[in-house]
TrEMBL record:
Organism of provenance: Malaciobacter molluscorum LMG 25693
InterPro entries per record: P-loop_NTPase, RecF/RecN/SMC_N
Annotated transmembrane regions: none
Coiled coil: 196-230, 255-289, 316-402, 431-465, 534-637
GO function terms (MF aspect): exonuclease activity
SUPFAM superfamilies reported for this sequence: P-loop containing nucleoside triphosphate hydrolases, Rad50 coiled-coil Zn hook
Domain RecF/RecN/SMC N-terminal: 3-125
Keyword Hydrolase: yes
Alphabetical keyword list: Coiled coil, Exonuclease, Hydrolase, Nuclease
Name of this chain's protein: Chromosome segregation protein SMC
Length: 789
């Protein structure tokens, strides 16, 4: 993999920036907080969608970016003679992730998880392996020789990915312990051989008893079936007796019902005869009052004519009153319309003035918003400078507490003679840079705040004027609606007035006499009672034909009932029924039912015994099956114990083998580089299987701690490069052709820095790109290429 270009937008401190990467040794130089390490954070994020240390998505986005602004990282790189572009971005308020991967300008996959999987497949490294192989810091280099034996061994095994084997080995140890415990527990729960024999004997005994009991149940059920068959025959005979008895009872009830009906028909016949005699008397009364009907109807017609005349008269009076009211309304509407028309003459001028003020308000709001954005940017800059002051003060306090023997808080190298110089540089950085910047920003901010206040006053005054004009316009538009309504209402009054006059003219021809109307109504009330008596008699006489028909019907019903009674008595006498034989048959059936119930109880008891024996057999079988199941589980755990033991032994052999290959390979790579760097002074660096480091001096082996600080630094550097090279060989990712080191110079003198640069120059043929990050500005002339931040 060769890096070509990196594009950042709203990523951490970068608003928008593009980096070009070239072959050879490149220095990335800048002050603390300038964003040097952010470049490789962005590379890691582009490839794997994560930073070195996982954190909130919101912390990745630039603090000055708006919610709607996107966060975007795009990395261009070469791999296996192909050009790739990987792009990742967060969009929207919820920072929704998306990613795309292009190969030779063609999209090959998209989606955050899918792109990460494709990158791992391409590079043959996950995020942790990528970091361990291609990135290293001064702190990590110092740990290689400075940690105690166990911690150093743990660190290197983690870099090489061997801690996964340790994890598996630990898993096997825990599993073996659990299996031994389970085997012991399962063994204690198993039945003894004597217990199993005893259960098998009980099982045979119960099966034999079950066969005998089943044969007895079968015999008793055969007896019961025969008894049920005989009982059914008797019940058929009983059913015949029941039907004959029911038939006689039905006829007896029918005869009594007909006799009751005959009495009812005779009573009805007498009642209708009495009603007919009463009607003959009412005919005489009817003849006396029948002339009342003609007189009543003539008077009623005259009263109705007077009612209609009265209604017309009252309607005409109401219309005259309505005409007077309409004339008053017409005059009032005319006055209101004149007043509203005068008020609306100023509407056009006020609307014109209102629109002008609204346009000015939009301009003032835009100007005020722009100034507030500038204010926020100045406050962010001041806060940033104050944070830098606090960080620098913390570093000063830390260095002062630790004294001259402390390490540089940036590069971790011992300060020693540079102690005072470092403190002076830090104090100077606060006074000359940070505080000066804050003072300039505050001057700009105060000027800007005065401009914002003035603009706000103008805007507030304009808003107040706009609200006043808006209220006036609203009221005038309401009056405009009132004018339209009044004009419509005036037209309605004219139309209603014309209709009113037309109706009064039509009703003028009707004349109403109230006295005559009252006299006619009194005469009508006088003869009303006679008329109502006439109507009652007329209604009664209309029933004469119905009563005569009812008399004839009752006489016919009486004849039919007498005939029915006679015929049913003959039928009743013809039916023969033996009550004694019926009762004897019922007693026989009852005796058979009792015998059947006794047999059912006996069969039930035997079936209960059958169920009890079956349950006992089931329980014994269950115990035996459970014991067999536990035996099988125990055997499986014994087999697992044997398999895990074999795997653990094999894994231990594998660890020994892999250690014996890794340590010599690291030694070989580191020795070749160290010999070149030291110009043959030291020929060999040995790495033991426990990852202890030794340097050979004149063919004698010495621990690394024996040598000077510069020699140890160079040894740590070549050892870390050798570990990276070994990692690439182990993962099969030979196409990765760049390395990056963070703050490897520390506070060394110029000779030490030249030695480190010479070390990197010796491995240029193995890595096309080497990137060195440093906050030491004075070393930038030492590099072939420099990215200065």
């Amino acid at each position: 993999m060769i890096l070509s270009k990196l594009y950042l937008k709203n990523f951490k401190k970068y608003k928008e920036f593009t980096f070009e990467f070239f072959d050879g040794l490149t220095g990335i130089i800048g002050k603390n907080g300038s964003g040097k390490s952010t470049i490789f954070d962005a590379i890691l994020f582009a490839l794997y969608g994560e930073l070195k240390n996982k954190g909130s998505k919101e912390l990745i986005k630039n603090v000055s970016a708006e919610l709607k602004d996107e966060l975007k990282v795009k990395l261009y790189f070469e791999f296996d003679n192909c050009e790739y572009i990987v792009s990742r971005e967060f969009r929207g308020k919820n920072l929704i992730a998306n990613a795309k991967l292009f190969k030779n300008a063609e999209l090959i996959t998209n989606g955050a998880k899918e792109v990460t999987k494709e990158i791992i497949k391409l590079t043959k490294m996950n995020k942790e392996a990528f970091l361990s192989t291609l990135f290293a810091s001064q702190k990590e280099l110092t740990k290689l020789s400075g940690l105690d034996k166990e911690e150093r061994k743990k660190m290197i095994r983690k870099l090489l990915g061997l801690e996964k084997i340790d994890f598996v080995e630990n898993f096997l140890t825990l599993s073996l312990r659990d299996l031994n415990r389970d085997i012991k527990n399962f063994s204690s729960y198993l039945l003894s051989i004597e217990d199993v024999d005893e259960l098998n004997k009980k099982l045979k005994y119960n099966n034999d008893n079950l066969k005998i009991l089943n044969s007895q149940i079968f015999a008793e059920e055969k007896k019961k079936e025969e008894l049920i068959k005989n009982e059914n025959k008797k019940r058929d005979e009983l059913e015949i007796f029941n039907k004959i008895k029911e038939q006689k009872k039905s006829l007896e009830y029918s005869i009594k019902l007909e006799e009751t009906n005959l009495l009812s028909f005779k009573k009805n016949l007498q009642k209708y005869k009495e009603e007919l005699e009463l009607l003959n008397k009412q005919k005489i009364e009817f003849e006396k009052v029948k002339n009342v009907k003609i007189l009543y109807e003539e008077l009623l017609s005259k009263v109705k004519e007077q009612d209609i005349l009265k209604e017309k008269f009252l309607k005409k009076e109401a219309l005259i009153k309505e005409r007077d009211e309409l004339r008053l309304s017409y005059k009032k509407q005319k006055d209101d319309i004149s007043y509203l028309e005068e008020q609306l003459k100023q509407l056009a001028n006020i609307e014109k003035e209102h629109n002008s003020i609204k346009e000015n308000i939009i301009i003032y709001q835009k100007q005020l918003q722009d100034k507030k954005i500038t204010e926020r940017e100045l406050r962010d800059k001041i806060a940033g400078e104050e944070n830098l002051i606090n960080d620098t003060k913390n570093k000063i306090e830390t260095i002062q507490k630790l004294g001259k023997n402390s390490k540089c808080p940036t590069c971790t190298r011992d300060l020693l003679d540079d102690y005072d110089m470092v403190l002076d540089n830090l104090y100077n950085l606060i006074e000359s840079n940070y505080k000066k910047n804050i003072e300039e920003y505050n001057i700009k901010l105060n000027t800007l705040l005065e401009e914002i206040n003035q603009k706000q006053l103008i805007l507030d005054e304009s808003n107040k004027k706009e609200k006043q004009l808006h209220s006036k316009i609203y009221l005038l538009h309401e009056k405009k609606k009132d004018l339209s309504n009044n004009l419509n209402y005036l037209e309605d009054i004219k139309l209603r007035g014309k209709n009113n006059n037309d109706q009064i003219d039509k009703l003028s021809s009707y004349i109403y006499d109230e006295k005559q109307h009252k006299l006619l109504k009194e005469k009508l009330e006088v003869i009303r009672k006679d008329y109502e008596y006439f109507l009652t008699l007329q209604t009664q006489l209309e029933r004469e034909k119905t009563i005569i028909n009812n008399l004839q019907e009752q006489e016919k019903n009486i004849d039919n009932s007498k005939s029915n009674i006679k015929n049913r008595n003959i039928e009743f006498e013809s039916i023969k029924y033996d009550e004694i034989a019926h009762k004897n048959l019922q007693l026989q059936i009852e005796k058979m039912r009792k015998q059947k119930d006794d047999l059912s109880d006996l069969i039930h008891d035997k079936k209960l015994e059958d169920s009890r024996i079956k349950n006992e057999i089931k329980n014994i079988t269950k115990q035996l099956d459970e014991n067999n199941h536990k035996n099988n589980i125990l055997q499986k755990k014994i087999d697992d114990l044997n398999d895990y033991t074999k795997i653990k032994i094999t894994l231990q052999d594998f660890k020994t083998t892999i250690n014996s290959k890794i340590a010599p390979r690291i030694s070989q790579i580191a020795s070749n580089m160290y010999a070149k760097i030291t110009k043959g002074k030291y020929q060999l660096i040995e790495v033991s299987n426990d990852f202890d480091f030794f340097i050979y001096d004149e063919n004698r082996k010495y621990p690394i701690e024996r040598f000077s600080g510069g020699e140890i630094d160079l040894a740590n550097l070549v050892l870390r490069i050798a570990i990276s090279k070994t990692l690439q060989e182990l993962s099969g990712s030979s196409q990765i052709s760049f390395l990056a080191f963070d703050e490897v110079f520390g506070s060394q003198d110029e000779n030490r820095r030249l030695e480190i640069l010479e070390a990197f120059n010796t491995i240029k043929e193995q890595y096309r790109q080497i990137f060195l990050i440093s906050h030491e500005l004075e070393i930038k002339e030492m590099f072939e290429r420099v990215i200065e931040l």
